Amino acid sequence: MSKYQHLKEEAYLANMQLPELNLVLFTFGNVSAVDRKEGVFAIKPSGVPYPELSVDTMVIVDFDGKIVEGHLRPSSDTNTHAVLYKNWQDIGGIVHTHSTYATAWAQAQSPIPIFGTTHADHLTVDIPCAPPMSDEMIRGDYEYETGFQIINQFISQGLNYKEVEMVLVGNHAPFTWGKTAAKAVYNSAVLESVAQMALLTRQINPLAPNLKPALIQKHFERKHGPDSYYGQS
After folding, report:
1. How many CA atoms lie within 13 A of 66 on its CB side?
2. Strand 29-35 and strand 40-43: pairing?
3. Pick from 212, 217, 202, 191: which is nearest to 124 by CA?
4. Residue 188 DSSP SS3
5. Residues acting as catalytic residues
6. CATH level 3 topology of 5-224
């Protein structure tokens, strides 16, 4: 049995959630799970349909995107994951999809406004959208540069990746992350739902205002604050 069996199992189970949650079509997405002690992560193989995946098809790579174990080529987005793992030390899993509503906002090059309490249950700011990549970056190592496209957006907005676990990449699609691969998948599903509700809100009322600060604070803190009371103790 592989020494990375637990990691491959985590990545496989998380990847299989994407079609179950209607977050991917065909091969339009990937999940990775990291082992910080070993300095590696497991990721979906490139271009393999979800029904054909298994634990053994997961590919183990290091933080430079080089294959450590596996007989298939890793996801084409591997270097983006590698950059985020190297620079954001508290991430345990990453998801990339082309889910319909979140991708539509990314293609519109627009952050997702915080219109309602569903959004505020998970974060207190608009979901950020990184501007399209420069021509120079596109001509370089594209997937590697995508990682820095995301990081640079967080730096420019003064955002904390541990508090805002999702982003839109302009003209591209969403990325999410979390302390585990399962949490990253959860965040991807939340992002897609919030993106759909925000679009409908704009259609119903193009001038709809953002949620007022008192409600943002109340809904976020009742789930995540020091005196949170949502769920079971």
Report:
1. 2
2. antiparallel
3. 217
4. helix
5. 121, 230
6. L-fuculose-1-phosphate Aldolase (3.40.225)
Work out the angle at residue 17's Cα, subtended by the Cα atoms of residues 13 and 18, and round it to the nearest 5 degrees.
Answer: 125
Of 216, 208, 28, the C-alpha closest to 225 is: 216
pLDDT digits (tens, 9 = 90+) for 60-106: 999 999 999 999 999 999 999 999 999 999 999 999 999 999 999 99
The C-alpha angle with vertex 46 and arms to 95 and 145, in degrees rounded to 5, equals: 60
Looking at residue 180, what DSSP letter applies?
S
At how many degrees (to 10) do helices 5-20 and 181-204 cross? 20
Q: What's this model's pTM, rounded to 2 decimal places?
A: 0.97
Return the beta strands (E) in the chain as ranges: 29-35, 40-43, 59-62, 67-69, 93-97, 129-130, 166-169, 174-178
Interhelix angle 100-107/181-204, rounded to 10 degrees, is 70
Q: What is the rounded (10 degree) CA torsion for 96, 99, 116, 168?
A: 40
d(CA 192, CA 201): 14
